Amino acid sequence: MSWLPLSFGAPAVLWGLLALPVIWWLLRLTPPRPQTEVFPPLRILAKVLRKEETPYQSPWWLTLLRLILAGLVVMALADPVFNPRERVSTGGSALAVVIDNDWSSAPDWDRRVATAERLIADASSTGIPVLLALTSEPPNAEIGPFDAEAARDRLRAAAPRPIPTDRAAVYERVAGALAEFPGASLALLVNGLASGDDEAAFQGLLAANPGTVVWATPDRFAPLGLTATTNEVDGFVLTAIRAAGDPAPRSVTAGAFDDRGRRIADATLTFGAGSATATGTMTVPFELRNDFSSIALDGEAQAGAIRVLDENSKRRRVGLLSLSEADQSQPLLSPLYYIRRAMEPYADLLEPQAQDLAEAVPQLLDQNPAMIVMADVGTIPDAARERLVQWVNEGGTLVRFAGSRLAAAGNDEELLPVRLRLGERSLGGSLSWTTPQPVTEFPQNGPFADLPPPNEVTVTRQVLAEPTPDLAERTWANLADGTPLVTGARRGEGNVVLFHVTPEATWSSLPISGSFVEMLRRIVQLSRNQGTAAANADSRSASLAPYRMIGADGTLVPPGPDARPLQVRAGAMPITIENPPGLYGSEEGVFAHNLLAADASFAPIVRPQFTGTMTDMRYAFDESRDLKGLLMIIALLLLALDTLIVFWMGGLFSRRSRMRSRAAATTTLLAIVAFGAVLASSGVSLADDSKPGDVEAVEAIAKTRIAYVVTGDSSVDSISRAGIEGLNRFLVDKTALEPGEPAGVDIASDELSFYPLIYWPIDANAEMPSQDAISRVDAYMKQGGTVLFDTRDQFSTGFDANSASPATERLRDILGNLNVPPLEPVPADHVLTKSFFILPEFPGRFNGSPLWVATSLDTSDNGDRPVRTGDGVSPIMITANDFAGAWAIDASGNAMLPTVPADPMQRIYALRSGVNIMMYMLTGNYKSDQVHVPTLLERLGQ
């Protein structure tokens, strides 16, 4: 009966089922049912006859019920398990569990953890220690041995990482640990993906001679990965891979996302039967392709299915300009021929319709190119030159090639990187003592620093630069005799680059070399004012801070604690724990560090050969269910049913029996009442110390709430409430604080100590608060609370001004009855300016009044100072900028009142001011505590 998903932990107990026939025989006999008769004595005596009584046979259904009950008890004692899980031998002196927790494990990580937990549970039953190692963890991670509970805790705390496995290093550590446990069991929970060092790693691990080996793999190895994304002329070309040899065709959709996570393009990639590679093209406009920030495969929640993009993936518009176009029958002599061939794969080329420079240059500039290449262009007309200079200063890149026209033109300080000598230099002619010069190694201060020098290139003619002190800094490529081949300089936000040779193969062989293509590509990468983080680097080993990382599930997340700056260099940069895949740099420019290389491939892992016992298993959840408790509950229910049947057959539920039951219930109720009376007479009672208002107090302190003073003017009070609601919503969006509903308080009667901040809009038409109410406010401020007075009249002339508004006069009257500390406008170094946001000022609906706080002369609380600051928090704040008016929102979340002036950012700054005030209320002088500065600097690596 292998088809039945049921097993027993103690199958020997099932022999008890043989006793069921005996139980059936015993249950057939029951005593006769007693008869109830009316008392007539003679009739009773007449019926009393001496005869042999025969037992009354039990009904068949009652017997069957009792047999079922007995069978259920026997089966329950046999420990039945429904859908029993696969049991694997984990004997020996210890159990070593090695799990691959790389990027490919993310989709079914929970299943792998459940499988490992089953193995650890089996080891726990025998009391052996557990070694637990993960192949994508730091090399110094602890692997044990642990007891079973500690191993489970570490397993549940583990998570997949977006990096490859390092089986060689981890297996070596596990092999060393297994040397202390001869004959231990080894469980290898692999990801199904082969790596280059698997064979040696397995041999080293199995050399520890484990007693048994458990080999666990996924049910189906079918990961997909993105290996290449290329922005071609006609569209964005994608390349995806899967495991080789998969016979089933498969289609997958890829989506392109911008920097805000919005999906802006799709493409379908189709794998043929047995094919390991699929390509697809996103045919979208040039401008839309340049907005791509990342590309991901749908339905693949792992880091290999996403690629982040930087400036290298964005195509530039490049304008081409020449005044000496060769005859079309001789294209190889065209000044722009080699430039077009070199730049077409990664740039969109533009050429003007007009031949006149005065019209051609504006035509190119109107199309917003990132770079303009001029082939032997000498003097530029003044009108076109002004626009060209402005374009360069705003971030454009101008690349110029030498020629006879440029050599004869005068120097242009703004559109040339260096000063040139008139004429040109000829090398290797019949009347020359010199020979053609080769190109030497590229200087370290230029964008070609990591390129190999083109030793095959020779130069026969060039334009020479005037020797200046900064010529070496502006030189990007040199000839063997030290003269510059390529020079470049910054002009405003842009660059000006000069090739001292022509763009066709007349003055040099550079245009027909492979280095020419790569040199132009590097310059194109610099052609935008933002550039790329790697291109703007100063050397080969540029250090870029982590910016946005790719999580193991394929989402973009902030950098983790293990992430370190990336050293950008030539060649492959491996994916490690310290340099996980993602974007490195800053908002000004990023460098994409992706998981899969362009030549990556997936291959299934090969099961190692082991001469001992080796067991295969699959990742699966533990779906077994213990039926012992369920069967015992059913047995108890049947027992209760049997008891009721026996009572019924015995006449318990007859009319007289029911009367006796009611009498008994009445007696029991009277006994309970009597017992309660005894307790009452003995003085035992439950104390009730609740007081009126306790419920309201509990509700008030359940959440942090901001209060406002109710003035009696409905328009003022509604703005105050709406303003605090708007601030609450902003606090929820930007901070971890989730305030409660705004609280309108009457300072004369309501309890004020429940609220850290009370907003008091001064209304000149409201009644003057009584002295008792002002005393309650004074006590509230002494106990650490803060009152924010807002006159809403943009008062900025100081409290001693000769003229004041009615609201300011009313504020003076109120403050005259309070013990107010000395006040000052918020200093630039006050904690209020940096408690959450960095704020130089605190605007509201108006922007002109400073925010007044208690003077921070002495932070200690003296006995003669009525209002104590309490941990550096000012007990009073005064403004005239109408904070609530700027914060107020309606039911739809729209602003209710305009700001003055009508600047959208002023409302944002007003809300940030509210956030800083609340953080200041709740944290005090925490931000000014210098004790934490060394720790923060150490964490930042400074």
Automatic annotation (TrEMBL):
TM spans (from-to): 6-27, 60-78, 630-651, 663-684
InterPro entries linked: Aerotolerance_reg_N, Class_I_gatase-like, Double_TM_dom, DUF4159
Annotated ranges, domain DUF4159: 705-922
Segments forming domain Aerotolerance regulator N-terminal: 6-80
Pfam families named among the record's database cross-references: BatA, DUF4159
UniProt cross-references to SUPFAM superfamilies, sorted A to Z: Class I glutamine amidotransferase-like (SSF52317)
Keyword annotations: Membrane, Transmembrane, Transmembrane helix
PANTHER family documented for this protein: BLL2463 PROTEIN
NCBIfam families reported in the protein's UniProt record: two_anch
Official protein name in the record: DUF4159 domain-containing protein
Species assigned in the record: Oryzicola mucosus
Lineage: Bacteria, Pseudomonadati, Pseudomonadota, Alphaproteobacteria, Hyphomicrobiales
